[in-house]
Write a structure and sequence with these properties.
Blueprint: E1 2-4, E2 11-13, E3 19-24, H1 33-38, E4 42-48, H2 52-62, E5 66-68, H3 71-75, E6 82-85, H4 92-101, E7 105-108, H5 116-129, E8 133-135, H6 143-154, E9 160-168, H7 188-196, E10 202-210, H8 215-221, E11 227-234, E12 240-246, E13 255-262, E14 265-268, E15 277-281, E16 290-293, H9 330-333, H10 335-348, H11 356-374, E17 380-381
Helix pairs in contact: 4-5, 5-11, 7-11
């Protein structure tokens, strides 16, 4: 059996090897359980959740026997090969570091960490140990992005001239670490795609803050900005990109996006969720330039056992449980692609995409951008370990 590595074009032979996966955090993380359970190279071995009632509810629903309420106890289990971390943002850095020190491969939801120091430590540990790290950035495996990437690689877009992306979301009412979070601290959903399309590396940034959030939101992180907009200059490239983020006090439907402007054609992400992409073709009569296009399903890149998860909206657990929130096709059908990429990297002994260095570059774009915004748009160079 064979599958294709989406970002390298390499064909990867799927062996009989199985990776023992432990999922940490069972909110968003629970969506990956049925994917791992059906992947031919995964053994959905253990789950970890601080709340025993929730841990047992999900463990019973999916038939997972090995359960932990203590992350550090999970790391002592020699049977755990890899951890997939889906914990709150403040825990990403220290948990990834602890897992790597314990000899576990790491997949972690975004962002990599909330400090440059933690990002650097993760990169250093990966180099020292030879273990694999992958930041599970959803947008770069969403069907819309994969369609744009396919157009680019076929030459249909021509020379790429400019990129922009946005991630806007109203986070009022979310858990207690969210209120007042600097927008660019959680920027990989828009940074990732502008870097990934041409496999570019961010070199330096200049960011401006705009507007002001409510006083009670400013207090926790001392960040006043309603919107942060940054320009990214790529290393050894004539390209730059613009990305913008908002989290509070901005009226906007949830949106993760990338717009790509090329010499032959350009593609713009839909303004309203679930609407078609807009493809603009050069050298046509004005009224014929735009064309609405629907992104195809890229299940062909996946083992047949998990292909349904690219389109299946809700995984049906039948009468076993009320856990109707467990979705297989979230974030543009990216979830099975993310799990497959991580597993194929471990089975094949190669780096996943994005690897530790790339993940740190994407994450540190946001951290450096917020630093720039606090300095009135000053140019801030990305740390050397990210480049």
């Amino acid at each position: 059996m064979r599958t294709l590595c989406v970002f390298s074009g390499r064909e990867t032979v799927m062996s009989d090897k199985k990776i023992n996966i432990a999922i940490v955090g069972l909110g968003f993380g629970a969506e990956f359980i049925p994917i791992y359970q059906r992947h031919p190279n995964a053994n959905m071995y253990a789950i970890c959740q601080r709340t025993r009632e929730k841990l047992d509810s999900i463990g019973d629903a999916f038939g997972i026997e090995k359960r932990y309420t203590d992350f550090n106890e999970l790391l002592k289990d020699p049977k755990v090969d890899a951890v997939h971390i889906n914990s709150p943002i403040p825990d990403h850095g220290w948990q990834s570091i602890a897992a790597l020190k314990a000899g576990k491969h790491v997949a972690c939801t975004v962002p990599m960490a909330t400090s440059i120091a933690d990002c650097k430590k993760i990169v250093e540990l990966v180099k020292k140990t030879g273990l694999k790290y992958m930041m599970m950035e959803t947008v770069v495996y969403a069907r819309e992005f994969l369609f744009i990437k396919e157009l680019y690689e076929k030459g249909d877009l021509g020379k790429i001239q400019f990129l922009q992306a946005s991630h806007q979301q109203d986070m009022d009412g979310w858990p207690n670490y969210w209120p007042g979070l600097p927008p660019m601290w959680y920027a990989t959903h828009c940074v990732g795609p502008v870097c990934a399309l041409t496999n570019a590396t961010a070199d330096y940034v200049s960011c401006f803050g705009s507007g002001t959030i409510r006083k009670e939101l400013v207090e926790k992180y001392n960040s006043p900005f309603a919107v942060e907009t940054t320009h990214i200059k790529f290393k050894d490239s004539d390209l730059c990109a613009r990305v913008y983020r908002s989290l509070f006090d901005v009226a906007r439907q949830y949106r993760e996006s990338i717009d790509v402007y090329g010499s032959k054609a350009s593609v713009e992400w839909p303004l309203v969720e679930h609407e078609p992409l807009v493809l603009h073709r050069a050298k046509l009569p004005e009224h014929k330039i735009p064309k609405l296009v629907k992104s195809p399903d890229y299940a062909k890149y996946l083992p047949k056992q998990i292909r349904p998860f690219t389109t299946k909206g809700v995984y049906d657990l039948g009468k076993k449980t009320h856990l109707s929130f467990v979705q297989g096709a979230g974030h543009g059908g990216s979830h099975p692609h993310l799990a497959n990429e991580f597993l194929m990297a471990l089975v094949g002994g190669r780096d996943p995409f994005p690897n530790a260095r790339q993940s740190s570059n994407w994450t540190c774009v946001g951290l450096c951008s917020h630093e720039s915004a606090l300095k009135g748009g000053a140019i801030v160079k990305l740390p050397a370990f990210t480049i």
